[in-house]
Amino acid sequence: DSGVTQTPKHLITATGQRVTLRCSPRSGDLSVYWYQQSLDQGLQFLIQYYNGEERAKGNILERFSAQQFPDLHSELNLSSLELGDSALYFCASSLGGAGGYTFGSGTRLTVV
Amino acid sequence: KNEVEQSPQNLTAQEGEFITINCSYSVGISALHWLQQHPGGGIVSLFMLSSGKKKHGRLIATINIQEKHSSLHITASHPRDSAVYICASLSVNYGGSQGNLIFGKGTKLSVKP
Fold first, then answer.
1. Which residue of A has its CA nearest to B91?
2. pLDDT tens-digit map of B70-102
3. Of A86, A82, A81, A93, nearest to A107 (Cα)?
4. A33: closest chain B residue by CA
5. C-alpha closest to that of B2 among B84, B87, B85
6. Is A76 exposed, middle or buried (0-12, 13-18, 19+ CB in 10 A)?
7. Which residue among B42, B45, B106 sits closest to A101, beta carbon to beta carbon?
Protein backbone atom coordinates (compact mmCIF):
# COMPACT_ATOMS: atom_id res chain seq x y z
CA ASP A 1 0.00 0.00 0.00
CA SER A 2 1.59 3.24 -1.19
CA GLY A 3 -0.51 5.38 1.11
CA VAL A 4 -2.39 6.99 -1.80
CA THR A 5 -5.85 5.48 -2.14
CA GLN A 6 -7.80 5.62 -5.36
CA THR A 7 -11.33 4.44 -5.86
CA PRO A 8 -12.80 2.77 -7.73
CA LYS A 9 -10.13 0.48 -9.22
CA HIS A 10 -12.20 -0.29 -12.29
CA LEU A 11 -15.07 1.56 -13.91
CA ILE A 12 -17.05 0.66 -17.01
CA THR A 13 -19.52 3.19 -18.28
CA ALA A 14 -21.29 4.24 -21.45
CA THR A 15 -20.54 7.15 -23.74
CA GLY A 16 -22.15 10.38 -22.65
CA GLN A 17 -22.13 9.47 -18.99
CA ARG A 18 -20.40 11.21 -16.07
CA VAL A 19 -18.12 9.58 -13.52
CA THR A 20 -16.22 10.67 -10.43
CA LEU A 21 -12.83 9.30 -9.47
CA ARG A 22 -11.64 9.72 -5.93
CA CYS A 23 -8.19 10.05 -4.43
CA SER A 24 -7.01 10.21 -0.82
CA PRO A 25 -3.40 11.42 -0.61
CA ARG A 26 -0.70 9.99 1.63
CA SER A 27 -1.02 11.31 5.15
CA GLY A 28 0.61 14.72 5.44
CA ASP A 29 0.91 15.33 1.70
CA LEU A 30 -0.60 18.63 0.59
CA SER A 31 -0.36 18.26 -3.19
CA VAL A 32 -2.54 16.01 -5.29
CA TYR A 33 -1.88 15.44 -8.98
CA TRP A 34 -4.04 13.73 -11.56
CA TYR A 35 -2.48 11.95 -14.53
CA GLN A 36 -3.99 10.11 -17.47
CA GLN A 37 -2.32 7.15 -19.15
CA SER A 38 -3.71 6.14 -22.51
CA LEU A 39 -2.23 3.74 -25.05
CA ASP A 40 -1.62 6.40 -27.68
CA GLN A 41 -0.64 9.39 -25.50
CA GLY A 42 1.28 7.75 -22.66
CA LEU A 43 1.25 9.45 -19.27
CA GLN A 44 0.02 13.03 -19.26
CA PHE A 45 -0.44 15.56 -16.50
CA LEU A 46 -4.01 16.75 -16.03
CA ILE A 47 -4.18 18.99 -12.97
CA GLN A 48 -2.56 19.73 -9.60
CA TYR A 49 -4.08 20.91 -6.34
CA TYR A 50 -2.09 22.17 -3.37
CA ASN A 51 -3.76 22.55 0.00
CA GLY A 52 -7.17 23.01 -1.55
CA GLU A 53 -6.22 25.36 -4.37
CA GLU A 54 -5.68 24.64 -8.02
CA ARG A 55 -1.95 25.05 -8.66
CA ALA A 56 -1.33 23.93 -12.24
CA LYS A 57 -3.23 22.68 -15.25
CA GLY A 58 -2.00 20.41 -17.96
CA ASN A 59 -3.80 18.74 -20.83
CA ILE A 60 -7.14 18.60 -19.09
CA LEU A 61 -10.23 18.70 -21.28
CA GLU A 62 -13.03 21.16 -20.54
CA ARG A 63 -15.32 18.17 -19.95
CA PHE A 64 -13.09 17.23 -17.00
CA SER A 65 -12.92 19.02 -13.69
CA ALA A 66 -11.39 18.39 -10.30
CA GLN A 67 -11.36 19.71 -6.79
CA GLN A 68 -9.55 19.17 -3.52
CA PHE A 69 -11.55 19.19 -0.33
CA PRO A 70 -10.61 20.54 3.12
CA ASP A 71 -9.58 17.03 4.24
CA LEU A 72 -7.21 17.06 1.20
CA HIS A 73 -8.89 14.26 -0.69
CA SER A 74 -9.53 15.02 -4.33
CA GLU A 75 -12.09 14.11 -6.93
CA LEU A 76 -11.75 14.09 -10.70
CA ASN A 77 -15.04 14.48 -12.55
CA LEU A 78 -15.25 13.29 -16.13
CA SER A 79 -18.40 14.16 -18.06
CA SER A 80 -19.86 13.59 -21.53
CA LEU A 81 -17.56 10.61 -21.77
CA GLU A 82 -16.21 9.50 -25.10
CA LEU A 83 -14.58 6.24 -26.17
CA GLY A 84 -11.23 8.04 -26.26
CA ASP A 85 -11.45 8.82 -22.55
CA SER A 86 -10.81 5.16 -21.80
CA ALA A 87 -7.53 5.15 -19.90
CA LEU A 88 -5.81 4.59 -16.59
CA TYR A 89 -6.19 7.59 -14.33
CA PHE A 90 -3.54 7.96 -11.66
CA CYS A 91 -3.51 10.17 -8.65
CA ALA A 92 -0.23 11.06 -6.97
CA SER A 93 0.60 13.06 -3.90
CA SER A 94 3.61 14.87 -2.53
CA LEU A 95 4.48 16.90 0.52
CA GLY A 96 6.57 19.43 -1.36
CA GLY A 97 10.18 20.54 -1.32
CA ALA A 98 12.49 17.56 -1.61
CA GLY A 99 9.80 15.10 -0.65
CA GLY A 100 9.01 12.21 -2.90
CA TYR A 101 6.12 11.51 -5.15
CA THR A 102 3.72 8.66 -4.34
CA PHE A 103 1.32 7.19 -6.87
CA GLY A 104 -1.99 5.54 -6.25
CA SER A 105 -2.79 2.24 -7.95
CA GLY A 106 -4.95 3.93 -10.55
CA THR A 107 -8.52 3.75 -11.79
CA ARG A 108 -9.02 1.92 -15.06
CA LEU A 109 -11.85 3.61 -16.92
CA THR A 110 -13.47 1.86 -19.85
CA VAL A 111 -16.02 3.78 -21.89
CA VAL A 112 -18.21 1.57 -24.07
CA LYS B 1 8.18 23.26 -23.39
CA ASN B 2 10.10 20.42 -21.79
CA GLU B 3 10.46 17.25 -23.75
CA VAL B 4 11.64 14.01 -22.22
CA GLU B 5 13.19 11.42 -24.49
CA GLN B 6 13.99 7.87 -23.48
CA SER B 7 15.92 5.14 -25.20
CA PRO B 8 15.62 2.37 -26.03
CA GLN B 9 11.85 1.91 -26.33
CA ASN B 10 12.16 -1.85 -25.96
CA LEU B 11 14.93 -3.90 -24.41
CA THR B 12 15.32 -7.65 -24.13
CA ALA B 13 18.10 -8.98 -21.95
CA GLN B 14 19.31 -12.31 -20.62
CA GLU B 15 19.27 -12.87 -16.91
CA GLY B 16 22.44 -11.53 -15.34
CA GLU B 17 23.12 -8.86 -17.95
CA PHE B 18 23.92 -5.24 -17.10
CA ILE B 19 21.19 -2.94 -18.39
CA THR B 20 21.24 0.78 -19.15
CA ILE B 21 18.27 2.97 -19.98
CA ASN B 22 18.90 6.55 -21.05
CA CYS B 23 16.85 9.70 -20.62
CA SER B 24 17.36 13.24 -21.87
CA TYR B 25 15.33 16.35 -21.22
CA SER B 26 15.27 19.72 -22.87
CA VAL B 27 14.89 22.40 -20.21
CA GLY B 28 16.01 23.01 -16.63
CA ILE B 29 14.21 20.95 -14.04
CA SER B 30 14.17 20.66 -10.26
CA ALA B 31 14.58 16.89 -10.25
CA LEU B 32 14.22 13.76 -12.30
CA HIS B 33 12.27 10.64 -11.40
CA TRP B 34 12.73 7.09 -12.48
CA LEU B 35 9.50 5.12 -12.24
CA GLN B 36 8.68 1.46 -12.63
CA GLN B 37 5.37 0.20 -13.95
CA HIS B 38 4.52 -3.48 -13.83
CA PRO B 39 1.99 -5.16 -16.13
CA GLY B 40 -0.69 -4.77 -13.45
CA GLY B 41 -0.42 -1.03 -14.01
CA GLY B 42 0.80 0.31 -10.66
CA ILE B 43 3.57 2.92 -10.70
CA VAL B 44 6.39 2.93 -8.19
CA SER B 45 8.90 5.73 -7.81
CA LEU B 46 12.40 4.21 -7.86
CA PHE B 47 14.52 7.33 -7.58
CA MET B 48 14.24 11.08 -7.42
CA LEU B 49 17.50 12.76 -8.46
CA SER B 50 18.60 16.34 -8.60
CA SER B 51 22.34 15.68 -8.89
CA GLY B 52 24.95 12.95 -8.89
CA LYS B 53 24.10 9.33 -8.33
CA LYS B 54 21.81 7.17 -6.22
CA LYS B 55 21.90 3.44 -5.60
CA HIS B 56 19.26 1.09 -4.26
CA GLY B 57 20.07 -2.59 -4.34
CA ARG B 58 20.87 -3.53 -7.94
CA LEU B 59 19.54 -0.25 -9.31
CA ILE B 60 21.72 2.79 -9.92
CA ALA B 61 20.56 6.14 -11.25
CA THR B 62 22.79 8.97 -12.39
CA ILE B 63 22.10 12.46 -13.62
CA ASN B 64 24.25 15.04 -15.41
CA ILE B 65 22.55 18.39 -15.01
CA GLN B 66 24.82 20.21 -17.48
CA GLU B 67 24.15 17.68 -20.22
CA LYS B 68 20.46 17.25 -19.23
CA HIS B 69 20.87 13.50 -19.23
CA SER B 70 20.13 10.69 -16.83
CA SER B 71 20.70 6.95 -16.88
CA LEU B 72 19.17 4.04 -15.02
CA HIS B 73 21.36 0.98 -14.64
CA ILE B 74 20.31 -2.47 -13.48
CA THR B 75 23.11 -4.79 -12.47
CA ALA B 76 22.73 -8.60 -12.55
CA SER B 77 19.28 -8.33 -14.15
CA HIS B 78 16.59 -10.81 -13.18
CA PRO B 79 13.27 -11.79 -14.78
CA ARG B 80 11.46 -10.00 -11.95
CA ASP B 81 12.98 -6.74 -13.25
CA SER B 82 10.74 -7.07 -16.32
CA ALA B 83 8.60 -3.95 -16.36
CA VAL B 84 8.24 -0.58 -18.06
CA TYR B 85 10.73 2.00 -16.79
CA ILE B 86 9.69 5.60 -17.15
CA CYS B 87 11.80 8.68 -16.83
CA ALA B 88 9.96 11.83 -15.71
CA SER B 89 11.17 15.38 -15.21
CA LEU B 90 9.84 17.37 -12.29
CA SER B 91 9.08 20.96 -13.14
CA VAL B 92 10.51 23.74 -11.03
CA ASN B 93 9.08 24.15 -7.55
CA TYR B 94 6.99 27.16 -6.81
CA GLY B 95 4.99 28.38 -3.88
CA GLY B 96 6.13 25.55 -1.62
CA SER B 97 4.75 22.74 -3.75
CA GLN B 98 6.49 20.44 -6.17
CA GLY B 99 5.65 20.87 -9.82
CA ASN B 100 4.12 18.27 -12.07
CA LEU B 101 5.87 15.42 -13.87
CA ILE B 102 6.53 15.29 -17.61
CA PHE B 103 7.03 11.73 -18.75
CA GLY B 104 9.10 9.94 -21.30
CA LYS B 105 7.37 7.25 -23.31
CA GLY B 106 8.93 4.49 -21.26
CA THR B 107 11.27 1.58 -21.88
CA LYS B 108 9.74 -1.87 -21.90
CA LEU B 109 12.28 -4.25 -20.38
CA SER B 110 12.01 -8.00 -20.67
CA VAL B 111 14.59 -10.14 -18.90
CA LYS B 112 14.71 -13.75 -20.06
CA PRO B 113 15.80 -16.55 -17.73
1. A56
2. 999 999 999 999 999 999 998 776 666 678 889
3. A86
4. B100
5. B87
6. buried
7. B45
